Amino acid sequence: MNTATVFGLAAAVAAGLGTYGLIANPQPLRKIIAFNLLGSGVFLFFGVVARRSAGAGFGGDPVPQALVITGMVVAFSATALAVALLLRLFQASGSATLRPNAPASTDSGRSEA
Amino acid sequence: MPGGSLLVLSLVVPLGGIVLAFAAGGRQVERIAALTLPLGLAIAVAIAVAVWQTDGPLVYLLGGWAPPLGVALRADGLSAVMMTITAAVICAVGVFARADFRTPVGSIESRASFAFWILLLGVWSGLNTVFLSGDLFTSYVALELLTFAAVPLVSLDGRAETLQAALRYLLFALLGSVLYLAGAVLLYGAYGTLDAVLLSQRIHAGPVTLIAAALMTVGLLAKTALVPLHLWLPPAHAGAPAAASAVLSALVVKGSFFIVVRLWFGVMPGLPGPVAAQLLAALGAAAIVLGSLVALRQERLKLLIAYSTLAQIGYLFLMFPLAVAPGSARLESGGALAGGMLQAISHATAKAAMFMAAGLIYAALGHDRIAGLGGIGRARPVSQHAFALGGVALIGVPPSGAYVAKELLLRASADHGQWWWTLVLQAGGFFTAAYLVLVLAHALAPAPEPAPMRTPVVRSREAAALALALCSLSLGLVPWGAVLPVSGIASSPLSAKAFGKALWPVLGGGVLAILLGRWEKETLPVPLAGAMVEMAGPARRVALAVGGLIERTDLALRQWSAAGLSLLVLVIAFCAAMVAAR
Q1: Which structural domains are found in chain A, ordered by start?
Q2: What does the CA dihedral B76, B81, B86, B87 come to, rounded to 10 degrees?
Q3: B49 at the A interface (CB within 8 A)?
């Protein structure tokens, strides 16, 4: 079991946990964190692909590295947009939930499950 | 090459408009948008003319580097058609939205106006990039650009429900795009390139390729909101302001649909096989039934139009099994593909017209309850005609584009001997007519007392909606053979026989509307209609039981757990279907 395989398995675990979190967690902030975990898993997997398809003398194929950087910027912007929407939702309704017609939470510090 | 630089211009002009608008701010944003929209339309038309005149696709190599190292922009007939219709719809929406999103006199800058015009240009640049991208990673970036520009359009008015709808849309769309990216990573790992042309030459079936194809397809279906992955669409499209709903329903969902077409027809035509194509169209048929029946049960006009979008999205996916060549099990770019793309552009224009008309009605009446629409025909005849003509164009009355698309698909289904899709195509016409008849029956009813109109008539807005509806209605007259793989229509779109064929869906739709619609005694147009509703009593009870069942199914499917589970099940199902075809 070489390094690339270990990283590949780690990427699979991260992607799996992220997918589960994004689908199963009702709170939007946890969904956003799970999306980041899922994205990190896919980018790590892209890195493994870069390692395995490296040419002579290179540590890793440069094309996937460039694509991963673009992907990370996209994921970062997505997270920023999602968090901004979440903050605005909390300001507008007093609770951060994706369930429609939910009553505003009485405890303003906690987001509703 | 001159054609290539046109492609670059079509991307640079909207993006340059965004940068200028950010820098200038305030009142200048509307002026910059007003300058950019006609310029972009001219560029799109120029690209269409250039594609028509040259033999192969227009190509532009970014930085002069050829694939596999560099990135190529490619414009063929499909791209040119989609770009032209996108430009036309966005210009019409721009004319329509000038009254809604104007900086008020006396203030320096208004947030809604600033956001709307910049986001409109952002959606446009994202769509142009989608239509022109020549490799899978550029498509990913273009899809993300499109999503990030479309999501804030949903929550422009800042209410809590629309913010929830926008966040739900963003999270589900991000899930879809990560799946797409995972598939692209697998394809790069297997073949060493993501360029569409190079990949189509190197691709062959194998476990990695099949899994990548399944992941990418399901990710794109999540962004296109095909049933059962439609959890975000109805609240998002119904909650957005009218101009934004028009853009979202007409154009944004077509972006990810276009990538599915490019993937299945361009990159991997021999890969999916007939079973996966039948699965895709089966989901489309389920979307038609679910979307149309739930649309019939709606009380609000914008929600009805949003569910109608769900049904029409299902219609778009019916072309896939009809394009599989019987002998070789490859997807071929023939009549079925032309029919599907024609259906996409006629839906784009008609749905934009319907949402704009709904916006005008809302502005006039102050509400969009279907039961309270009585008397609108007298007060706002142009808006009502725009809505009716848009709906009629959607049903497929000749010479609309939907009629030609349906003829092409029916001919393909007859050629392939797949009679069940003939049934679905014909039934789709009935379902579409049903909710149109429902709305028009309520709108044509005389009002008990004339309702006060909230805002004065703005002729340019009504003209924009009517122009788009008429455009959709006359798309069948355009000679598509130059840019789409069409090879002659059997019957002329303007013959009497063609009109006769179009009458049946309206009659059938009327029956469905009587059985399933919400009717209140005071709003029935004529006493005869009241007698018909009474007579249909027992049948109505059965129909309402079925309708209630389907509404509960829709509600269950629109939970995160159900949608997420459907996502994973569909990935496995597509994998299995592609393996089964080997």
Answers
A1: 3-93 (1.10.287.3510)
A2: 90
A3: no
